TrEMBL record:
This is Orotidine 5'-phosphate decarboxylase. SMART domains: OMPdecase. Residues 6-227 form the Orotidine 5'-phosphate decarboxylase domain. Its EC number is 4.1.1.23. GO terms for cellular component: cytosol. Pathway: Pyrimidine metabolism; UMP biosynthesis via de novo pathway; UMP from orotate: step 2/2. Keywords: Decarboxylase, Lyase, Pyrimidine biosynthesis.
Length: 235
């Protein structure tokens, strides 16, 4: 499906029925969708088939983090399922990322984007300090994103607050996927490093992951349309 919008709607629901109900209200030319741990744990791979049948590009967000062999095989199975994007944790290290990239490179005509999560958007400097990382989020994101790039990743998940820095450091083709997107006035929830959709695009993000600001809205389609309009997607 060709989708002009950078928005990826996080279908974070406890049942397959709820996620499909939302997906049917959305238009695959206006957004992509993300299947994360909650939905995949309840619905399994059937949810990927169902969303593909509705013509959505699907980001399988299971943030794999394990030994290289295990992660490479999991990424390969995700690609077999036809997902548009899959992710691993950059903190799994170079050998884990390289094994995953090699697994996809060995496939004939691989179409699946392989992305590494840097520092979760729910974390700030004090969270990093508690796990023994005495760097600012920006410094740690830069370190992990450079490692991800040299390990063969197509891009990273980061906060939009780091997009401009990464775009300058790693080039405009390195894909920046940014959650923690909050339109002005919407609830921050558990996110710490946030930005509005327009700010994130201006900073160099390629894709904006949005969950609750859309899925918990009284009129989710209206919010999505408003964001797309603000971004000039249908201008
Ligand atoms: O990999 C992700 O998608 C992700 C990485 C990250 O650092 N932060 C983050 O929020 N996410 C995901 O992005 C979505 C954000 O949802 P909302 O906070 O509801 O907009 C959730 O599904 C998270 O699992």
């Amino acid at each position: 499906m060709s989708c002009q919008s950078p928005i990826v709607v996080a279908l974070d629901y406890p049942t397959m029925a709820q996620s499909i109900e939302m997906a049917k209200r959305l238009d695959p030319s206006q957004c992509r969708v993300k299947v994360g741990k909650e939905l995949f744990t309840t619905a399994g791979p059937a949810i990927l088939d169902a969303l593909h049948k509705l013509n959505f590009d699907v980001f399988l967000d299971l943030k794999f983090h394990d030994i290289p062999n295990t992660v490479a095989n999991a990424v390969s199975v995700a690609a077999d399922a036809g997902v548009w994007m899959v992710n691993v944790h950059a903190s799994g290290g170079r050998r884990m990322m390289e094994a995953s990239a090699n697994a996809l490179a060995q496939r004939a005509d691989n179409q699946t984007l392989l992305i590494a999560v840097t520092v979760l958007t729910s974390m700030d400097q004090s969270d990093l300090a508690e796990i023994g990382i005495d760097l600012t989020p920006e410094q740690h994101v830069k370190r992990l994103a450079s490692l991800a790039q040299s390990s063969g990743m197509d891009g990273v998940v980061c906060s939009a607050q780091e997009s401009s820095m990464l775009s300058n450091e790693l080039g405009k083709d390195f894909v920046l996927v940014t959650p923690g997107i909050r339109p002005a006035g919407s609830a921050q929830g558990d996110q710490k490093r946030i930005m509005t959709p327009s700010e994130a695009m201006a900073a160099g993000s390629h894709y904006l992951v949005m969950g609750r600001p859309i899925t918990q809205a009284a009129d989710p389609v209206a919010v999505l349309t408003q964001v797309n309009t603000e971004l000039g997607v249908f201008a």
